[in-house]
Amino acid sequence: MLWVQALVFCGGLIYAAVDDLKTRTVCDIVCIIIAAAGLITISPASFLGALLAMAPFYLCAGLGLMGGGDWRLAAAVGFVLGFDRVITGLCLMAAALLFASFAMRVIPALRKSASAKQPLVPYFAVAFIPAYFL
Fold this sequence. Notes:
Layout: H1 2-23, H2 28-37, H3 44-62, H4 69-106, H5 111-114, H6 121-133
């Protein structure tokens, strides 16, 4: 059953990343499907992971710095990963965001996109898919 969870988790994140790049929205159905995949290996760590992953994005959404779909997706991802792997995923996501920001500032062809708002879900996929397998 773990391979089903891996397929749903990875497929859902990849779909959400592509959809976020196209529409700049996060589909609620994808969040529900990813959270449902977490029911396969549910534990108390699942709830702590959801809370830990959701908290910073919820605060940023409350301050108007990002949309509301990001924190819902973070909660679903955290529910699947649990507490320990969420910490790993958040560190990987921070590294990916820093690397992309640096590249957008240094590479002249990317400078125009550095000032525009960037979709966040592709960074979720880049960070939390490897964290799932660690």
